[in-house]
Amino acid sequence: MVPERLPTVLLMRIGILGNGEMADALGTGWARAGHEVVAGSRSGDVGLREAARSGTDAVLLALPYEAAVGVVTELEDVLRGRVLIDCTNPVGGPDFTLRTAGGPSAAERIAAAPTAHVVKAFNLCHVDVWRLTPPVFDGRPLAVPLCGDDYFALCVVRRLARDLGCEPLNAGGLDRAGLVEATAALLIGLWVGEGADAQAIAPPMAFAGPRG
Fold first, then answer.
1. Predicted model pTM
2. Which of 29, 44, 78, 94 has fewest C-beta within 10 Å?
């Protein structure tokens, strides 16, 4: 059965919580695609609450992980029922360790605060990648894994990924968001800590092993 709450408009109203580089890169890409984007912060002309209200189709959480749970708890009344995109990375320290290791993922902790439909996405790449128009490498669009439990929310975020020129991938429910976050910790450690080509750790699809 096809859910009734499918996106019915080509263009969306997107609110962004935060005014850092990720907020700017993703917001600029969506605005270029024709979406209406409003970004807010605690210190800017537009506040976080106003930005959240503006996100009638989706809200991007583009804040440091340390502030994320507190902010979504504070805005719970505004975020209720909204599509909330979590691009945070709970990674820190000189060894780029996962701060949520042994417990719920960052996305699950964020989902526990508001009654929003959380989708984990856009957390695996450096901000410079999101500034590419589009992020295509050797003719292959960047793939964006999505984790979420709400079908409608996933449909919205899939469209937003495609509007950036990317290919969305179904990575499972929100209970698998911790795997995506751990992948980010691994990749950041290889890229930044070791100066390694992290993409080289995965073989081409033809050599990846049997399917099915």
1. 0.91
2. 94
